[in-house]
Amino acid sequence: MIKQNNITKKLLIPIIWSVFILSIAFVSLVLFIQFTGVYIGPGASDFILPLGNSNYELSRTSKTMACINKYVKDELKEVVAPTVQEMAYDNSFIMVKQYPLESTDNEDDIQYWIIDINKKSEYGPLSEDEFNSKKLEFKINTTLKLKNVDSYRNDKN
Question: Where does the sequence pass through the membrane (predicted)?
Answer without folding.
Answer: 12-35
